[in-house]
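Something for you to look into today, if you have time. Could you write out one complete protein record for me, on any chain you like? Leave the record below and I will have a look.
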Amino acid sequence: MFKIGDKVRFLDEVGEGTILSFKDKKTAIVELENGLSVPFLISQLVASKDIITQTSNFDNPEKKEKIKGIKRIVIEKEQYQIPKISQKHQKNSKQTIEVDLHIEELLDNYTYLNNGQILEIQIQHFRKKLENAIINKQQKIIFIHGVGNGVLKAEIRKILDTYQGISYHDGSFKKYGFGATEVIIH
């Protein structure tokens, strides 16, 4: 059905990727648009070329009738597939952004990931949001990492130590307990 190099979309996630390899008969390793390699169940993948072919021919009058239903289904699927890949940071004020790094806020389906893969996704999201905050000249950004066993918090702080012009401390204990790091960008 699929082969290495195929472009695919996901049934339970928003986005696309390329099949890099196969872990077993049921699982493919897919490189996401952001460069991360993640295992997906093959049953949760759809070939991108099928969707592109069906929708790109929609304007062709001869093929319009044949694929009219397909176009509608694709549009409806995309409309109802609300991504959790977290645009889910909230602005508290002009200067402070909250970014929740809990994996359930970043992905709809993460049960197939091991702890190392989850940490990698969380760190990539952290870096992306931090870089965006620096580029957009935000003064404060709060990363909600939770308490857990402290691995994510330690990794975040190790990365923050490599930046100049940035300081950090625990977020408000009253609001986050020990589960957040507040970053100040100077």
Helices lie at 48-56, 61-80, 103-106, 115-135, 151-160, 173-176.
